[in-house]
Design a protein that fits this description.
single chain; alpha+beta; four-stranded mixed β-sheet; three-stranded antiparallel β-sheet; 12 helices
Length: about 350
């Protein structure tokens, strides 16, 4: 059994904060998740190594022990084994924790209710699991603690790192986690029963706020929360705040974007009308057009007809997933001159005679 450098596995320094460890773990777990590499045993091994490193470094007690003994873990393990033998027990055994269980990653979870409706905890099963999912090094260094305490290791609590929350953060929905747990039978049903329905609230925002992003203050049981609303949201977009609702429930903010007096929105695209003179429509030219970003220059081709749509690429709404922004379509409205003088009327008649425009209705 060789020493494993958990810091190297996660690619963080030994001085890393818990936030840095969590960020590195989520990225690596997402990149090596078996659902993204079906049939790739090397990726599954990396995924298990990353989870093992996170299980230690995210637990202050385990991390302190790991930092203290490090490469001297064998001496610690021998001392623990001798103490366990004297007490009639052994190292490892039922205390070895398995975050995956039979059948693959996330297959062996059970659930337990906490002290209130929002206090849901997800735990690793130890009965019938494959102890080899964590390395021998892990079992020798930490396995005796579980056997002595008789307690499976909690993966997290609702609102602060539950399985569904972590999977969602990695881009895998709650159904992925439930599908993996389904191999455990009744455990899936108990988890569903333990979770309370989320509480929903509506946030009305302007189109400008949807374009630039904004924030709202929400009062939950006398506690004021500042909710960040990202750029690109649309009517019906949902922002989930895990464990922030009443009784520890999830709080879901549903956005409603108000109509704009100038722009009409269709998905990520915007449309607006712009008025041009007869001269600009006939001879062409450049005009300034207001967008949600600011003013841009638009070229009006010569001979532009009323109602023609001109595209300004990338001047539409930003997209939530970071893809390229939508487009702005400018619909031309040609405004004819009025109150012509006799001289102007004569000039117009002479011009129209020269233009010889055919009847567009024929």
């Amino acid at each position: 059994m060789e020493f494993q450098d958990y810091y190297a596995t996660l690619g963080v320094p030994r001085t890393a904060t818990q936030a840095e460890i969590k960020k590195a773990y989520r990225k690596l777990a997402r990149d090596s998740h078996p659902d993204r590499h079906p049939g790739d045993t090397a990726a599954e091994r990396r995924f298990k190594d990353v989870n093992e490193a996170h299980a230690v470094l995210s637990d202050p007690a385990k991390r302190e022990k790991y930092d203290r003994f490090g490469r001297d873990w064998e001496a610690y393990a021998r001392a623990g084994a001798a103490a366990g033998a004297a007490a009639g027990g052994g190292v490892g055994g039922s205390g070895a924790r398995d975050p995956f269980g039979p059948g693959g990653p996330f297959a062996g979870y059970a659930s337990r209710s906490g002290t209130g409706p929002g206090g849901i905890r997800y735990e690793f099963r130890t009965t019938g699991g494959d102890a080899g999912a964590f390395s021998d090094f892990f079992r020798m260094m930490f396995g005796d603690e579980g056997a002595a305490a008789g307690e499976p290791e909690a993966f997290g609590t609702s609102g602060s790192g539950s399985l569904d929350d972590i999977l969602a953060g990695m881009g895998f929905g709650a159904s992925t986690a439930r599908g993996r747990r389904g191999a455990g039978g009744a455990g899936t049903d108990r988890i569903g029963q333990a979770r309370l329905a989320p509480v929903e609230a509506t946030a009305e925002i302007s189109l400008d706020e949807a374009f630039h992003g904004t924030a709202r203050l929400v009062d939950v049981n006398g506690k004021r929360l500042e909710i960040t609303i990202p750029r690109g949201v649309d009517t019906g977009s949902r922002i989930r705040l895990t464990g922030k609702g009443p009784d520890g429930r999830d709080l879901v903010i549903v956005t409603k974007v108000q109509p704009h007096h100038t722009f009409k929105r269709t998905g990520a695209d915007l449309e607006r009308e712009i008025k041009v003179t007869l001269r600009e429509a006939l001879l062409g030219g450049e005009i300034h057009v207001g967008t949600l970003k600011g003013r841009v220059l638009l070229t009006i081709p010569a001979g532009t007809q009323a109602g023609r749509r001109l595209r300004l690429k990338g001047q539409g709404m930003p997209r939530l997933k970071g893809e390229a922004a939508g487009d702005l379509y400018v619909r031309v409205a040609v405004i004819l001159p009025t109150n012509l003088s006799d001289e102007a009327k004569a000039a117009a008649k002479a011009f129209l005679d020269l233009a010889a425009q055919p009847d567009p209705r024929s």
